[in-house]
Design a protein that fits this description.
This protein has one domain (88-312): Hypothetical protein af1432 (Orthogonal Bundle). It has 14 helices and four strands. It has helices spanning 45-53, 66-82, 88-108, 116-132, 136-140, 149-169, 173-184, 195-198, 206-213, 215-226, 231-239, 260-274, 286-296, 303-312, and strands at residues 7-11, 25-29, 32-37, 58-62. Strands 1-4 form a two-stranded antiparallel ribbon. A two-stranded antiparallel sheet has the order 2-3. A hairpin with a 2-residue loop joins strand 2 (25-29) and strand 3. Helix 4 (116-132) crosses helix 6 (149-169), helix 6 packs across helix 12 and helix 6 crosses helix 14 (303-312).
Length: 320
């Protein structure tokens, strides 16, 4: 999960032939990446039309060439979100792509955590999109290969958490930004876990699982020491694996001793995991996930918050 990926996905909706940086683009054929366009050849509108006709909605860029692309997308994202010519679904896909690039940068280059303003800018764009568009999460919930699950998952948790906080607590915008920052960085402590554990295909030993459980506290300590992150953001990172019945970690907190932001982040974290494809299982539907969370999580989650979350993401009441 935390090892540097050789290629990064880029959805074709992000590509404007008139201004997109000159980089080599690849298509994926089975496990292999095949050159589609060399850096020196401009991408044409005809290229995009052919890709659309072949139902190719994702291209790939070598990780070492992603810098100028990520910078270009972040510089233009405000204009993209303000555009009246793009459908909300396309805007959501592009925004999800930009935010995912940011998270991938953090996991491959942790020093970039010091750029708090970059994180805040992207979270602000997510927040504005979520609060202004009905069913915004549907377009942000992109289906991608499991190799990129960690990064898309962080974007989904941030988006869901801001949506839930806005609906349940009517927070002011500046507090919603802090909620989103906590969501997008909630698993940042994973950068301190050895790759041999993160990439292990078999069941973890007790020692390895103990190492994994340290990520919440390690992530909190890292952000606290860097400075610039609010207590709301830090609480989401530190306590998102605490459980309402005291069975969580790192401190086995019970009930409302768990900060409310972390309680909601925990719900969003599990929901996103259940509704996303993973290497070892396929995603389940929205309703199946909510039913499972209610059945198995009556003591794990705050029951009132879980019931409100169900209404927000469109779950119908379960039958007793």
């Amino acid at each position: 999960m935390s090892q540097q990926l050789q290629y990064r996905p880029i959805i074709t909706a992000c590509i404007n032939p008139a201004s997109f940086p000159s980089v080599a683009l690849y298509v994926k054929s089975g496990p292999n990446f095949v050159l589609y366009k060399p850096a020196e050849r401009p991408l044409s509108q005809q290229d995009l039309q052919r890709l659309e006709q072949s139902r190719t909605d994702t291209l790939y860029i070598r990780s070492e060439e992603m810098g100028p692309v990520a910078e270009f997308l972040e510089e233009t994202i405000t204009g993209i979100m303000d555009s009246e010519s793009l459908q909300p679904q396309v805007k959501g896909q592009i925004l999800s792509q930009v935010a995912m690039n940011y998270v991938m940068d953090l996991f491959t280059t942790p020093d970039k955590l010091t750029d708090v303003e970059r994180c805040r800018h992207l979270v602000r764009q997510l927040m504005n999109f979520i609060t202004q568009h009905p069913n915004a999460f549907d377009s942000l919930h992109a289906v991608v290969e499991h190799d990129y699950y960690t990064f898309v998952h962080s974007v989904q948790v941030a988006s869901l958490s801001m949506l839930a906080h806005a609906e349940i607590y009517s927070l002011p915008l500046y507090e919603l930004e802090d909620v989103g920052i906590g969501g997008i960085l909630h698993d940042v402590g994973m950068i301190f876990i050895p790759n041999t554990i993160l990439d292990k295909p078999d069941a973890l030993s007790n020692f390895e699982y103990t190492m994994i459980k340290r990520h919440a506290q390690r992530g909190y300590e890292c952000l606290r020491d860097l400075g610039g992150f609010s207590e709301i953001s830090l609480a989401a990172v530190r306590f998102h694996h605490e459980r309402y019945n005291g069975d969580g970690y790192p401190f086995s907190l019970v009930g409302d001793a768990i900060p409310r932001t972390a309680q909601i982040t925990a719900i969003c974290d599990v929901y996103s995991a259940l509704t996303s494809n993973r290497p070892y299982r396929s995603a389940i539907s929205n309703q199946e996930a909510l039913t499972l969370m209610e059945r198995e999580g009556r003591s794990i989650f705050n029951p009132d918050l879980l019931a409100r979350f169900k209404k927000i993401v469109g779950g119908s009441p379960s039958e007793e």
